[in-house]
């Protein structure tokens, strides 16, 4: 469960905006990307995770990164679009390729948030 689940939606969005503003001040790009990824993972929204990835990939260098991970540049350019990032595992692979290390808790929170509740059992 995200820490933001106890906030009303407008307060949660303000809080997220403040967190992103603070993360933007981090000068070491891998640390900044990690901070932004954690914020996105806290929301449980893969679209936001894709936006953070897109921004980091652009800063890293699109063509250099595409060659490194074996993706086409056009696919990476679309990673921010809704539905383009379909797997949290793929997002973590791309973050790892960027040199970003993420804590495991936000990963599991986002993974569980994206499971369908119908017919599922979590042990």
Relevant terms:
disordered N terminus, about 0% strand, single chain, about 120 residues, mainly alpha
Describe the SSE topology.
Elements: H1 9-23, H2 29-43, H3 46-60, H4 62-69, H5 73-77, H6 88-97, H7 104-113
Helix pairs in contact: 1-2, 2-3, 2-7, 3-6
Largest sheet: none
Beta fraction: under 5%
| Helix and strand composition category | mainly alpha
Distance between the termini: 16 Å
Order of helices and strands: HHHHHHH
Total DSSP helices: 7
Could you say which overall geometry the principal axes of the C-alpha atoms support?
globular
Report a brief summary of the structure:
This protein is mostly helical and 123 residues long. It is 63% helix and 0% strand.
Explain what this protein looks like in three dimensions.
The protein is globular and about 35 Å long. It is built from seven helices and no strands. The protein is mainly alpha-helical and 123 residues long. The chain has one domain (3-113). The protein has helices at 9-23, 29-43, 46-60, 62-69, 73-77, 88-97, 104-113. Helix content is 63%, strand content 0%. Helix 2 packs antiparallel against helix 3 and helix 3 (46-60) packs parallel to helix 6 (88-97).
């Amino acid at each position: 469960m995200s820490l933001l689940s106890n906030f009303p939606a407008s307060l949660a969005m303000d809080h997220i905006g403040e967190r992103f503003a603070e993360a933007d001040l981090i000068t070491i790009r891998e640390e900044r990307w990690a901070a932004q990824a954690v914020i996105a993972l806290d929301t449980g929204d893969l679209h936001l995770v894709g936006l953070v990835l897109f921004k980091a990939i652009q800063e890293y260098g699109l063509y250099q990164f595409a060659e490194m991970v074996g993706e086409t540049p056009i696919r990476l350019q679309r990673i921010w679009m809704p539905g383009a990032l379909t797997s949290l595992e793929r997002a973590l692979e791309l973050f790892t390729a960027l040199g970003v290390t993420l804590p495991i808790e936000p990963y599991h929170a986002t993974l569980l948030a994206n499971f369908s509740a119908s017919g599922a059992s979590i042990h």
